Amino acid sequence: EEKMKRAFLTLLGILLLSGCVSTMNADEYSTLKIKILNLETIVKEQDKRINELQQRLSQTEKKLEEEVTNRFLEAQSKLLSEVSDLKKDLQLLQSKFEDIQFQKEAQSDLQAKTLEDINTRLSALELKIKELESKLEGYSKGESPKPNKETQANQTTTETPKVSTKEPTSNQTQGAPEKPKEKLTEADLYQQAFILFDKGDLKGAKKLWEEYLRLYPKGKWVPQTHFYLGEIYFKEKDYEAAILEYQKLIETPGPNPLKPKAMLRQAEAFLALKDKKAAEILLKKVIKNYPGSKEAKEAETILKRLR
């Protein structure tokens, strides 16, 4: 386009010169030539300005493209950083939530155990209070405490001393009859067994709990007694006996907070006996019957370890 302009101006100048040279004098010719030179100069300046504008436009486009790219990369980097921070915050919140949930479950388990212990102690106290009230009522009526059948059989019934040709009994040789032993109440017997178990005296606790079952086969703490007998057998590594005691608790009608623990302990006992299949069945049963419980989580952990 620029070349066409120059050619057009040159041709115009030639035509003007050739057409008018014969009729022009020297002054007119020189004036026309100056004008043509001026036009060429203007065209050159315009071409130069166009080139400069094109260069500026090219540079501006390049700068704009670089700036847009840089801003895009900066925004992208910022977004990625924000997303990463949000993920970290989310993980932190999830961790805190799990900690709170674990603490809540642990506190709930502790509260349940404490509540069970308190109920046991309250029941024992109630039985003691009733026993004391009945004794006080007897004393207020002027009655003396009645000895049991065993002590009645051993006591002498004579009020005045009599000469006897028979050899004296062990009670008589001591000068006075022994004080009769009082029969332990249901609450006292269970509580004494629990105290021995808590102290680590497994044999003593086992003996008292077996006595409890013999004297109170339908007692209030029969299910708990079977559970703790199972614990004693488990610690003694008599796993088969432990499984049977836990089963007696599990088969007891109605809910009991020790049932999931008993079922979990049965699974552990079967694992100790190398019966993996029976253990897996019981672990899945714990998860199904007691979802969300501490025992269910322990069962899931054991199952993962077995796979």
From TrEMBL:
GO terms for biological process: cell division. SMART domains: TPR. Residues 138-183 are annotated as: Disordered. Gene3D superfamilies: Tetratricopeptide repeat domain. Residues 138-149 have a biased composition (Basic and acidic residues). It holds the Pfam family TPR_16. The keyword Nuclease does not apply. Residues 150-175 have a biased composition (Polar residues). Residues 1-26 form the signal peptide. Keywords: Signal, TPR repeat. InterPro entries: CpoB, TPR-like_helical_dom_sf, TPR_rpt. TPR repeats lie at residues 223-256. The keyword Thylakoid does not apply. This is Uncharacterized protein. It comes from Caldimicrobium thiodismutans.
